[in-house]
Structures are given as structure tokens and as C-alpha cells.
Amino acid sequence: MSLKKSKHKKTKSISGPEIFDIEKEETEQQTHRRTRSSRAPTTTSIGSINLQQVKQSLYPPASSSVTLNPNSTSNSVSDSLYSATNKSEDNSLAYSSNTIDLNVLNDDGCPVEKKTNNSAENEWIIQALCEIENGFQVILDRVKQNSNSCKDAITFLKKRAIIEEEYGKAILKLCQTTLENSGKDKIESKQGTYNESWNQFLELHEKIGNNRIKFAESIGNVTENLFTLLKNTERSRKQLKEAGLKYQKTVSDSEALLEKAKIKYETSSEAWEEAILEKERHFVEHFGNQNLQQMSGFNTITKKKVSLFSKIMLIQQKNPNIFLQKVEDEARNKAAQANEAFKQQLVSTNATRREFFGKNLPRILRSLKEANDECDNSLQYNLEKYSYSYENALMSDATTISPLNEAQGLRKIIQKIDNANDFVEYIRKPLIKGTKFEKNDITFNEYKMQPETYAIIHPKTIFGINLAEQLNRDNLEIPEILVKCANYIEKYGLNTVGIYRLSGSNSAIQKLRTLFDRDADQVILTDENVQDTLNNVTGVLKLYFRELPNSLFTQELYSEFIEASKTEDERKRLVEIHELVNRLPDPNYLTLRYLIAHLDRVQANQKVNKMGVSNLSIIWGPTLFGGCNMSKSDGSEADQFIDMKYQCKVVEVILSNCYAIFDPDS
Questions:
Q1: 3-state helix vs strand vs coil in the chain, percent to 5
Q2: Which of 145, 156, 298, 335 could form a disulfide bond with 272, CB atoms 3.0-4.6 angstroms apart?
Q3: CA dihedral of 211, 215, 220, 226, whole degrees rounded to 10
Q4: pTM, whole model, 2 decimals?
Q5: Quick one: which of 481, 498, 488 has its CA closest to 542?
Q6: Contacts of 584 (CB under 8 A, 6+ apart)
Q7: What are the C-alpha distances in Å from 332 to residues 62, 65, 66, 419, 485?
Q8: What percentage of the chain carries pLDDT values higher than 70?
Q9: Residue spans with biased composition (Polar residues) (predicted)?
Q10: Are 342 and 78 in contact (CB under 8 A)?
Q11: 614 or 449: which carries more pLDDT confidence?
Q12: How far lies 385's CA from each of 157, 204, 221, in Å?
């Protein structure tokens, strides 16, 4: 951002007759400028003619606010410009009375001899940064490094706090769960000194867990402080960076305007110089030939290529001298205006630079240095605070586990356990309240099977077994199968059409037969699918009576029952059958009475079930005389059919007169 003087390349000086060689001057490809050493003296005489007086008479000086002498030894515009430039450059460094020597810095960028005064050292660093172009960016990068360091510390401490908090909570939860389990199952847990030591053991671990939670809270506080520090540092860095870039842009814009003014000034000065040289050349052409021999020392005109535009303008003008003077005046005025504008812009730019280098830049750098120092110190302080909390947590754990007095330390708590005394206390109550051993010989107790299993191993067969034998075996008066089947039919089948006439499933009947053959007392007739079950129950009951070895009416009385049924007189027939029924053995009599009573209840509902006395007799006659039929199987089929007719008649007479044959009360 520094400005330097523009260096003008000096041209070769010419003298003598060369100034009058017009053709050679026109063919010259390079433009030569007159230097200070080659310019003519203030007054030049050629013979008796004073050239200076002639020029003044031909070209009177124009009125201008700026007086410029083309033949003077020094160019006043250039000299004044350069003097102003030197003065402004000298003033641009006026803000620093003590110039910083960067050579006093060592390789690490630190002073060789560190000053004890921090403020003086900081000011020295600020001045040193002002001397280098990237000083602003250097300290910005340093503040950015501090921000990144804060982020790393925040990330680490956050995870560290989570670890400590989870560790502390896990220990507390473990202790609480262990205490609850120990309290629930006192019988299964050891008591005495061990229980006391164990409770103290858990309390000690609870203290450690609480210490860890407190440590996690302190880490959280440090993390919050660092987060606040990070936000403040980044905000300060952003604001100061924007301000610094704004000041830099102001200086850059001002220097750009100065460069434009300088270019305009140099261009207008060159145009003015060209006009002066053109006028001088024209003067020499018209007045210099008269005394050419007297101009041997004249060496003030440099060779200049005359432009085609200038030649045309000179030819068109009636008086070239007046035209050249007018061109020179215009060029001089433009050069003066450009000179004034350049000097004003130079003053403004130097003022902006002085303000930037002397005030704004040091202030921005100082603020950045303060933000950096604050971040450094706060980060260091918070890390020290974390270290202090960490040390306290470790010391607290250490004093909890092993206190200085060694009274309640972890090792002392475990050493207080008295296993021998605990064991004695444990067995004391059982010895006092316990039951003594029975030392007598152990007797044999036979295993009692379930009724279902026992019935399988020791079945109580009823099918094909003599009625008196099975009733005597089971200590019953009525067969169990008759009782259960009759009760089931009376409960579910009195309204069933064709009861006892419809046949059931043979497989289901055989299954029921197997169950009754094992133990009739254990059979339970379910109420599922009643219609099918009814037919199966009636079928198994009829099967039971058919398979009796000796029929219910007995083989001995069979012929007499048949003969009695053939009697025409109903009264006499009833009396004879009644007498035969009374002659039946007791098991047969009681069973017949129970069965007839059941069938009477069935026929009583014959309007619904369509099973009257006649229909029931047809079914039950052959069934109750079944054994007798088998004994007479050698007879003809006609005889067996006739007997079946009278068998049904016997059952019909008994069923029709059941209240006369059997005691109604029974």
C-alpha cells in the first residue's frame, strides 16, 4: 500500500547544428526530452540579438494562476510535486516515533530479551505487526487457532462429563438395586457383622458415585464457560475482521484514486512539455538562421518528432505563432489543474494512510491482541479449573476409600467381618427351635395309583360277567352302568324321538364298553354332542344286558315266563308273571325293578319320543332274554321267532303293570 516516486527516464542531450536539422528530426523514431543539464541558460545571446527578448516580444506570457518557466533550470511543477511527495512520505511515518527494527526478533518471532512490563511488550508486538503487510492476517489466524482450541476442549469435556455422569449414576443404581435385593431376601442373605459391613461397603460406593456426579457437574460448568468464551471470541474476531477489512478497503480505494490522478497529471505534463518544445522548434526555424554561426553554444532544443496533426494545423493557420501560444496555454492550464488535483488527492491519501497506520490498524490489532489474550487466559483458567476439580474428585475418592484415620476405610470395613461369630448366631435359632430327627426305621408305604391308572391295571369287568358275581364284587345292589346310563337318558333323552330304537356308532359303543369294563364308577358321560352320545349310551346299555351269561330273567325261569305269557286270561297271566318275577334272585329282581321304572318314565313321554310300552317291549324283550336265546340256538328259526314274540309279551305285561308287580314306594 506504499506509494513510490515515478522515475522519469532521461533522454540523450543534443547540441550544436542538430537542432536545426528538421528532416533528421522528422525521421527520428524516438522522442527525446530535454534534461536539466541540456537546457539553455536563462539568457542566451546570438550576436547582437538577445534571443530571450525576441521570444518575449513574439510570445507574451499568458495570464495564469500557475507560473511555469519552461527555460528555468528546474521544473517547478515536478519539483513541487516531488517535494510534496517526500514530505507526505515523511509524515506518513510520523505516527511511530520509534521505528521497529524487525532484526531484533529471533527465529521464533519473539524478542531476544523479553521485557518484564507486559503492557510495553504488548505495545511492542502491536508496533511490530504494523510494520509487516500480513500482520493483520497473522493475528486473525492466531485468534482462529484459539477458537479451534476451545472447540477441541469443549468436545473433550462434554464427552468426559457424560462418562463421569454415567459412571456415577451406574454406581448409584447398582448400590440401590443391591440394597433392595438384600432387603427382600433376608433369609437368603448373610446377617450379622457381614451384613453390617456389606451395608457400609455399599454406602461407601454411593459416596463415590455422588463424587463422580459432582465432578461431572463441575465439568459441565467449565464446558459452559468455554462455550461462552468461544462465542465471544468468534463474535469479536468477526467484528474486528470486518472493521479491519473496511479500513484496508478505504486505504486501497484512496490509493487507487491517487494513482489515477498521478497518471492524469503525468499525461497532461507531457502534453504541455510537447507544446513548449513545438513552439521552441518553430521559433528556431524562423529566427535562428540569421546568426547560425553565433549559436555554437546553443543546445537547448531536443529533437522532437512533429506529429502529422501539428503540421496540418500549422499550415492552416495564418499566424502559427499565435496558434502555438494558444496550444501551450491550454496545455499549461490542464497541467496546472492536474497538478492541483494530484496534490489534493495526495494529501487526502496520505491523511487516510496516516489515520490507518497511526490509529486504525494499531487499534484493530490491539483489540485482536486483547481478544486473543482473553481467550488464552480464559482457556487456561478453565482447564486449570477442570484440573482442580479432577484432583478434588480423585482426592475425595481416595479419602473415602482410605481415610486418614483409617477408621471407616474400605479395608477396615471388610476386616470387621467376624465369620465365626456370624455362623454361631446363624445356627443358634435352628438349634433351639428346630425339630429333631426321627431315627426309627422307615416303613414301607405302598404307592397309590390314580383311579384311572388302577382301573387299567386292575379292571372291574362287567360285560359277560354274572350279574350276582359283579354286584357282590363291587358291593352294589344295582349295576353302575344301568344307573349312569338311565340317569343320562332321563336327563337328555326323554324328548328324543325313537330313543332306544335308533342305533349309535359301533366304534363309540365299543369305546364306552371299554371304559365301563375298566371301572364303571370312573366313567363320566359328557354332554357334548348329546344326540350321538344318547344313541351310544342306549346302545352300550342294551349290549350290557345282551352279554350277561345268564339273562336277567334267568335260564331256569325262561320256560315258565314263556308259558305264562301264552295264557289267554290277562288276569291269570299277570298273576303268573308276577309270581315268576318274585322268584327271581335278588340281584336280578332289583335290577329288573330299576330298569322297568326307568322304561316307565320313558314311555310316560311317548307323545314326544314316540316310544310307548309296545315299542319298548319289542326292543327290550329279546335283550332281557338274550342269554336264553343263545342256550336254545339249536332250535329252528320259527321256534326262536315265536319265543321272541312271547319274550316281548312278558316285558309288555311287566311294564304295563309295573306298579302292581313292584312296590310303588320302592
A1: 70, 0, 30
A2: 335
A3: 170
A4: 0.44
A5: 481
A6: 553, 554, 557, 592
A7: 10, 10, 8, 121, 151
A8: 73
A9: 46-83
A10: no
A11: 614
A12: 12, 26, 10
* Nearest of 85, 99, 82, 221 to residue 161 by alpha carbon: 221
Asked if residue 544 lies in contact with residue 552, where contact means CB atoms within 8 angstroms, the answer is no
Which string of DSSP letters, residue by residue, matches 358-410? IIIHHHHHHHHHHHHHHHHHHHHHHHHHHHHHHHHHHHHHHHHHS-TT-SS-H
Closest CA to 84 of 346, 356, 353: 346
Q: What is the distance between the alpha carbons of residues 217 and 234, in angstroms, rounded to a whole number?
A: 26
**Are 353 and 251 contacting, i.e. CB atoms less than 8 angstroms apart?**
yes
Distance CA 391, CA 381 (A): 15
Rg (CA), the chain: 72
In contact, 622 and 647? CB cutoff 8 Å: yes
Q: What's the per-residue H, E or C state across 253-300? A: HHHHHHHHHHHHHHHHHHHHHHHHHHHHHHHHHHHCCCCHHHHCCCCC
The residues, any chain, with a CB within 8 Å of residue 436's CB and separated by 6 or more, are none
Q: Are strands 45-46 and 49-50 parallel, antiparallel or unpaired?
A: antiparallel
Q: Is 287 exposed, middle or buried (CB count within 10 Å of its CB: 0-12, 13-18, 19+)?
A: middle
- Average pLDDT of span 456-472: 86
Half-sphere exposure of 200 (CA within 13 A, CB side): 19
**DSSP tally for the chain: helices H, then strands E:** 24, 2
User: What does each C-alpha distance from 305 to 25, 27, 329, 495 come to in angstroms?
Assistant: 6, 7, 21, 151
Mean pLDDT of the chain: 76
Answer whether 1's CB lies under 8 Å from 255's CB.
yes
What would the pLDDT profile of 47-106 be if each residue is shown by its tens digit? 333 334 433 433 344 433 333 333 333 333 334 333 333 343 343 333 333 333 333 334
* pLDDT tier at 306, thresholds 50, 70, 90: very low
DSSP string covering 132-151, please? STTHHHHHHHHHHHHHHHHH
Report residue 633 as a C-alpha cell: 340256538
- State residue 288's pLDDT score: 57
Closest CA to 335 of 530, 66, 619: 66
Strands (E), 71-195: none
Q: DSSP of 503-556, one letter per residue? A: ---HHHHHHHHHHHHHHGGG-----TTHHHHHHHHHHHHHHHHHT-SS-TT-ST
Q: Which amino acid is at 138?
A: V
Q: How many CA atoms lie within 13 A of 29 on its CB side?
A: 0
Tell me, rounded to whole angstroms, the distance of Cα 20 from its chain centroid: 96
Q: Cell 317291549: give the residue.
A: 617
Identify whether the C-beta of residue 207 lies closer than 8 Å to the C-beta of residue 410.
no
Domains (range + CATH), the chain: 12-57+139-287+322-428 (1.20.1270.60), 459-661 (1.10.555.10)
